[in-house]
Write a structure and sequence with these properties.
The protein is α/β, with parallel strands linked by helices and 441 residues long. The chain has two domains: 197 residues, Rossmann fold (3-Layer(aba) Sandwich), CATH 3.40.50; 232 residues, Rossmann fold (3-Layer(aba) Sandwich), CATH 3.40.50. It has a six-stranded parallel sheet with strand order 3-2-1-4-5-6, sandwiched between helices. Strands 11-10-9-12-13-14 form a six-stranded parallel sheet. The chain has a two-stranded parallel ribbon with strand order 7-8. The longest helix has 32 residues. The relative contact order is 0.09.
Length: 441
């Protein structure tokens, strides 16, 4: 089928590339001429494992093209996906839908023949209704159906998630549109990925509800981690103990410095605002948002405590800046709040991240960027592991110990074991676990 993907950011580029890899003809559209020029030259503007090779392969075979011109691509398409940004709106935290609505107006002006317009962006309940109103008002004679098809991609594993999804949610009130969507996803038939066809508003809410639930799991285990520290329990063992219950599951039960990224922070906040507007506040999600925000700053206090209660004039080495491994995404990354808290307390900060430093520089201009973990630790009074990149899982601690001024390690991802660090002469602090090694270690 012929697909036009409006928006060539993270969701649009991954989705468009994977659709092309299924055999569809895909045109990715973006208003940014520099981005399109880079994509046409084979340069990928984001870091996502495997994406560059997949883009190059499908572009070479002619199934994937890039353009700034919407009219021709939309006119030729069987389905047009809207995959533009929906950031939190300044002032009230509601999702900024201006890009979605602007795309709808441009699409309306270019429609030709029966076309399914698909909202792939994460949008509040009722957005599809407004998209349809805009299109029908601008092009009353157009044969068009508006569908919701939320994405459930994890940064760092997006290609696998797209090709082997847990489910595909299609919000379609028009049977013909539902059939078009089923044909688009037909290549996943052999994977037996369940396709759930719902009403449009139900599909829109499903995306927000899913992200809010996962954010709640993360926040829950983080609060349990705080309790574990006070009573001498081990949060990793608690998480395993409850995660083995099939009703709960083990995923998203890893204690750490709080969630960040492009989805959870803005989507939980948008759900809170949507529920308030509907007169049915989601108090649990409101608490999740508040607890997560305060947790990031609390991690800076944890580092300060590990340094004896003061860091003024000291150098703190931070390993990992992105909100998670295998991405260069710095949006709402815990490192931003942690570093700000350390700087407010008078610390000098050195940092290293395998992929995120270019994205971090505009956000953190007043820190020193190192060339590798050992350069980062050189002369440091403490080493803080913030993002659990694979490159940080087997560090040479003898080399680190020789480079650092003080043997202090704060592991905010629980990558290491207390007994291993103690044996190497470090004072070790983790999250929700005893800092001292077990007596029989």
């Amino acid at each position: 089928m012929r697909i036009a993907m409006v928006g060539s950011g993270y969701v649009g580029l991954v989705s468009g590339t994977c659709f092309a890899d299924f055999g569809h003809e895909v045109v990715c559209i973006d208003k940014d001429p520099d981005k399109i020029a880079a994509l046409q030259a084979g340069r990928i503007p984001i870091f996502e494992p495997g994406l560059a090779a997949l883009v190059a392969d499908n572009a070479r075979q002619g199934r994937l093209t890039f353009t700034t011109e919407m009219r021709e691509a939309v006119a030729a398409a069987d389905a047009v996906f809207i995959a533009v940004g929906t950031p939190s709106r300044r002032g009230d935290g509601f999702a900024d839908l201006s890009y979605v609505y602007a795309a709808a107006r441009e699409i309306a002006a270019a429609l030709s023949g029966y076309t399914v317009v698909v909202t792939k962006s994460t949008v509040p309940v009722g957005t599809g209704d407004e998209v349809e109103r805009i299109i029908r008002e601008a092009a009353p004679a157009a044969e068009v159906a508006v569908v919701s098809n939320p994405e459930f991609l994890r940064e760092g594993a997006a290609i696998a998630d797209f090709k082997r999804p847990d489910r595909i949610v299609i919000g379609a009130d028009d049977p013909r549109a539902a059939q078009v969507m089923s044909e688009i996803y037909r290549p996943l038939y052999l994977n037996q990925a369940p396709i759930l066809v719902t009403g449009r508003r139900t599909a829109e809410l499903t995306k927000y509800a899913a992200n809010a639930f996962l954010a709640t799991k993360i926040t829950f285990i983080n609060e349990i981690a705080d309790l574990c520290e006070q009573v001498g329990a081990n949060v990793q063992e608690v998480a395993r103990g409850i995660g083995l219950d099939n009703r709960i599951g083990s995923k998203f039960l890893h204690a750490g410095p709080g969630y960040g990224g492009s989805c959870f922070p803005k989507d939980t906040l948008a759900l809170v605002k949507t529920a308030q507007d509907a007169g049915t506040p989601v108090r649990l999600v409101e608490t999740v948002v508040a607890v997560n925000d305060s947790r990031k700053r609390a991690m800076a206090r944890k580092v300060i405590a590990a340094c004896g209660g003061a860091v003024r004039g000291r150098t703190i080495a931070v390993l990992g800046l992105t909100f998670k491994p295998n991405t260069d995404d710095m949006r709402d990354a815990p490192s931003l709040s942690i570093i700000a808290g350390l700087q407010d307390a008078g610390a000098r900060v050195r940092a290293y991240d395998p992929e995120g430093m270019e994205q971090a520089r505009p956000l953190l201009p007043d820190i020193h960027y190192a060339t590798d973990p050992y350069d980062c630790a050189d002369g440091a009074d403490a080493l803080v592991l913030v993002t659990e990149w694979d490159a940080f899982r087997a560090l040479d601690f003898a080399r680190l110990r020789a480079a650092m001024l003080a043997p202090v390690v704060v592991d905010l991802r629980n990558v290491y074991r207390a007994e291993d660090l103690a044996r190497r002469g470090f004072r070790y602090t983790s999250v929700g676990r005893p800092s001292e090694p077990a007596a029989d270690a």
